[in-house]
Amino acid sequence: MTAPMQQNAIVIGAGVAGMACAIRLAVAGYAVTVFEKNAAPGGKLSQLQLGNYSFDTGPSLFTEPGNIAALFALAGEPMQDYFSYEPLAIACRYFYEDGTVLDGFTNAQLLAEEIAQKTGEPATAVTQYLHTAAGLYNSTGKIFLQHSLHSRKTWLHAPIREALRHARPAYLLKSLHRLNSQCFNDARVVQLFNRFATYNGSNPYKAPAMLRMIPHLEHNEGVFYPKGGMISIANALYRLACVKGVVFHFNTPVQHILQQQNRVQGVTAGNRHYYAPVVISNIDAYFTYKYLLGNEVAAQRLLKQERSSSALIFYWGIGKSFPALQLHNIFFSNSYREEFEAIFKHRQLHSDPTVYVNITAKCEPGLHAPAGKENWFVMVNAPAGDYAGHEQVKQQCRANVIQKLNRLLQTDIEPLIEEEQVMDPTGIEAQTASYMGSLYGTSSNSPMAAFLRHPNFSRSIKGLYFAGGSVHPGGGIPLCLRSAAIVAGKILDT
User: Fold this and answer.
1) Going by C-beta distance under 8 Å and a sequence separation of 6 or more, which residues neighbour residue 38?
2) Comparing C-alpha atoms, which of 426, 446, 355 is closest to residue 384?
3) Alpha-carbon gap, residue 456 to 463, rounded angstroms
4) pLDDT tens-digit series, residues 373-425
5) Burial, 181: exposed, middle or buried (Cβ in 10 Å; 0-12, 13-18, 19+)?
6) Is the pLDDT of residue 5 over 80?
7) How far apart are CA 332 and CA 90, in angstroms?
8) What's the start-to-end Cα distance of the chain, in Å?
């Protein structure tokens, strides 16, 4: 169903989901205007320049490129003219305190053989796990991710009923860690597959076993590198939106959502009213209610759900090349359960954090760092919260990270740091309008978390919709793109 000629729509926020919504509606005939408080598109998907080093500042893992290809196909534009990517042989390299180093191959059989050789875990245990993960994703996960869970029409849809038949109760009632402990004997392998709960900012010791489907995306379907870095995704979507006639207003935060008689009327931005019968919020649902709608009660209701984790990020320009490292690297904590208890129970950084290091210079030498040097995006999981004035806490974390990297790489890292900048949850909130810096909105630390996420539409204000990481189906580029498809589908179906 297409829109009437030049029906207006307004999108708040030029994140990935916001731009995808704008493209979909523009293709359907809407005149779309996007308001963005920052100076450039991308939202969390941004870029930082420090001297001769450049860094992607947000999501660094690229999976399911078909979501982007589908968007270009819908728009009738050749994706290769805007954006290109290449497959990776290794999704991630894992470092353990006992000296074990595992390559997370994007081929399931190669991964199984690697794990068997390094840990003694039977290769069949890994291949069976990934085979089951693929079946769960294709029969259940994909269906739930493509439809609104908050619409009556969805539950009358035949594929949803079929998906429910494949979803075992144990996948909701059992934790991911408990499932993994039953599937694998070696603690290192359990830890490797536990970490996939962090992909939506959750605790593997509480998040449901349904998350076992996530490694399917990396080890069966593959991991990819977008040429130019992750920022190229944001740039490609922005260019596509402009070609389709979408109008962007940067450095223009929305001040209010206008409504009358429970129907959206438009927005106020830059002290000026802009009118449209459709408004899509691509900012955190909490901020939408608290500031744009002035509904403190609804905002506080959202906080009853546990927030996802945030991150403490160190951007380091490293004056040396490390052949032992890949694009994606994980240095595991030696006390994984205690790390998540610190984050979610005690609301503090753990003294032995798991450290993630992303180095795009591995894929395009000389582009993001000078020759023979590397751009390190160094991240640890952190509780969402206000970090203003907590410099000592951040400095202690920095010291812990450096000690860990020194130990596992057998190199003194600190003298190699030529450029440095730090981002904490307070900064993430200020830059991306994510409440308390929570990267994924709410966590998945309960069996019903997926069903409790904010819906993609307002039940009380007709014409108001929600897209992005704080609402269904969740955070990360693939899910944000799917949230946009759900939103556009609901708008065009009304």
Assistant:
1) 14, 46, 250, 251, 431
2) 426
3) 11
4) 999 999 999 999 999 888 999 999 999 999 999 999 999 999 999 999 999 99
5) middle
6) no
7) 17
8) 9
